């Protein structure tokens, strides 16, 4: 049941499914507003455990533990979209869960996500669902090449994806994604990728942050720049798309919408690439450039509080500290206009997000 709450009182307890860095930053934001936080995660090294009042080290399938978790919390949210759908459904029958289990189910499966976006008349790349390797050649006969093969589930930071330039690439691409259910979609020749981070409350009120422009290295987000290099018309069009999606999902909390910006005479066509039902890496810049950051905004939304002001007082560049980049933190900490955010992870590994740095400068139009 998706219970509607009166504003949750400070001192209440928020449960978070997932114990990664996003859960950690959500817990810290909740603590600033006077809430207690319980974190449920099967990983004993979860960064969020270090800042939570209580930790639940159990599998997401452990209904006994989930029941205790629900009983001890006043509301539950999650920090990543790969929480099993049946776990979310089980908890939503016992307590308030935001975002709702339906939004989670759609966002964690690429085919379901594409079908949902198509139903809302949102522009996306031409695609087809794939269940076996023979399906790929049939789909490409209509979609053409180049194309991208993407596993339907559990893909992130470029994992579970393979580019198909010619039909000869099909067997290798199928092997690369693990021979699992997938989608194949046309490659969009985009100029840049942007993200819209939008908050929607239980009453349907929405507040969006300015779109950020994303730069990737090895398929992992390296930097987000704000303002994005887009026209005012594209800015407003991107926000409108995000609002349409949030309304269609009856969403509560922070939603991230990634879009491709293309180039055409006189305008910039937009195609939605992905939605994420949670706070998002490309929204980390809000921590130091906005009056209310994405983490506090999510807590406000799910707890029935008024949404905060999302306009930025500064321009920003968010830089991820990935793998050995972590060891640069002393350099960034010594710079006056850089804010260092480290996640408390104990092991540095190639491709692992260890922290981020926000570089800010006053926004000319700040009020």
> What's the CATH class of the largest domain, please?
Alpha Beta
Shape: globular
The number of distinct β-strands equals 17
Helix content: 25-40%
Largest sheet: 9 strands, antiparallel
Q: Supply Rg.
A: 20 Å
CATH-defined fold name of the largest domain: D-amino Acid Aminotransferase, Chain A, domain 1
CATH superfamily of the largest domain: ATP-grasp fold, B domain
**Could you say which structural class the secondary elements and strand pairing correspond to?**
alpha+beta
The first-to-last residue Cα distance is 41 Å
In terms of per-residue confidence, which ranges show pLDDT below 50 for 5 or more consecutive residues?
Answer: none
Mean pLDDT: 94
Order of helices and strands: EHEEHEHHHEHEEHEEEEEHEEHHEHEE
- The oligomeric status of these chains comes to single chain
Number of helices: 11
Query: What fraction of the residues are assigned to beta strands by DSSP?
Result: 25-35%
CATH architecture designation of the largest domain: 2-Layer Sandwich
Number of domains: 3
